[in-house]
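In this supplementary section we document a worked example of the pipeline. Step one takes a protein sequence of length 652 as its only input; no multiple sequence alignment statistics are reported here. Step two produces a three-dimensional model, which step three serialises into structure tokens for compact storage. The input and output of this example are shown verbatim.
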Amino acid sequence: MWLPCRCTTKYVAASIRRGVSASFLHVLRRGRSSWNSAAFMPESAGFEGVSGRDALHDYSVSHSENFWAAVARQRLNWIRPFDAVQDCDLSQGRIKWFEGGKLNVSVNCLDRHVHTCPERVALIWERDERGSEVRYTYRELLEMTCRLGNLLRRHGVKKGDCVTIYMPTCPLAVASMLACARIGAAHNVVFAGFSSEALAERIRDAQSSTVITVNQGVRGGKITELKRTVDAAVQSCPTVRQVFVAMRTEKRVEMADRDIALEEEMLKEDVVCEPAAMDSEDVLFLLYTSGSTGKPKGLVHTQAGYLLYAALTHRYVFGYHDGDVFGCVADIGWITGHSYTVYGPLANGGTTVLFESTPVYPDPGRYWDMVERLRINQFYGAPTAIRLLIRYGDQWVKKYDRSSLTTLGSVGEPINTEAWEWYNRVVGEGRCPVVDTWWQTETGGICIAPKPSEPDAEIVPGMAMRPFFGIKPVLMDTEGKLLTSNNTSGALCMAQPWPGMARTIHNNHQRFLETYFHPYPGYFFTGDGAYRSQEGYYQITGRLDDVINVSGHRIGTAEIEDVVVSFTLFLYPYHICDAVCSDEAHLSDFILIISVTQFAKRLPKTRSGKIMRRVLRKVVDCDLEGLGDLSTLDDPAAVQEIIEGHEKVLSK
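The serialised model returned by step three reads:
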């Protein structure tokens, strides 16, 4: 694996203006008695009548073009300024931002920081082997990216091509993403837990001629044969001409004529790589959903809008400021890893952690040992991992110094109240705000979260709460009518576009329109249900295709699971035959009568922590032929256990 050489490298760079002064960018810390909008967000000095967070959000929605234009001009480095802020029409599914503008994403993530602080640490690679972390400065990461970009160019990868990356979370994977961005190629990062069949499907759909992988992956003390998986996949991918192979371990692997030793060839390349001038709406990457809700979709994200939104949400939701260490433990194969391990932190000139291991390897204290060693300030993880760690007891947390932590984040699914309270009380010692973030692959970045907020504003356990700047959520009823009152539930939609949203589904724009824009014309349909409290806060209730209709009322999985896991036994109720409810229907008003209950030791979950509910539905419907690809599951054996358990239930 490519390691930093720690030697002086001659670097040539054009002088670039730093977009926003670091002193202005840090989020005001908890406990401040007043809110200075201009210090919080310098651009707001030009927004008439803005004097607080709520007013700033109102302005970002009511004067959307002014808001996003000001932020884009200040926070991105442009090769050519944009002519138009947006050309969007949700009724037609048309989304275009910052047209006429040209920029390079890798320059925004690397070069401009190398110009001002070349020896600042960009990446801390928390390898699977505990205590063996490796740090990479911005200068070293730029050098690695340029060498790799030149190598790809030398082997015929050109602007507009799509490179498939099948790698674990490691610095070379980040450099591969940035090298693609530098030369104008799109990247298609495929989660390194997928089977050869799933990988092949994504390579074919992306029409990749180039694949980048490693000889072996290491996770939780176990070795995975990634090169072998790629070899099997490309047998059914006639477009693939070359496979670049990096060495994560010392084991040599069989190399075919199409295979190229990555690190060996990188050493032959120059450390300066001319960045391509990309249009704002050129494709930056494809990212295929995990298939937890059906056939995987290759969602398309573009250059300027995505990068701006990832950077802005990273800084303001988590209260990130210069000098902090940001610890997002998501795999780079998911959108969370793209936005909050790679692009958001690096665009902000931050220090970001690449976590290669698992929360329980070699013991359940792994996260908190890492927090102590790396002095992590913001920690961003999944509710599934939090619930897992609760079972091992508080001692594994309290064993380590967590005084560096300032913010705790939750991502992947709604966090239940019990897990939220443990996270806040035990991990954060009651002094760190917990931000339960709601967003999707489709949204590109966080859309609803408790922060940013007015100083000392309340945070309600288990609620995403407040829309981010430029985000206007609405609730719709079953007849497609807008629900304007509070204390109500409905389908969660977005009433206006934002720069970070996906532009299409690769090779299937019609499916994009039918999935997100046709269900509620004029709105972006998220597929999720939500409850809006009396105070106007939002709580995500789960996927609408998982909603249970009872006596005319819709009950979401998140609501049910939050109640169920509050008991000692953890159950998964999949059929409710009756209910009694009051006039104002929320879960607390229901008496649920569960006709059939199946006990399961574990549920089928992706390695990103999402429950594969479609698999549970197929088991309940006895449609085992329709289970689909299970290779993304953390442990596919869980499915067989549930199938066997269901057969026992039916036989009673």
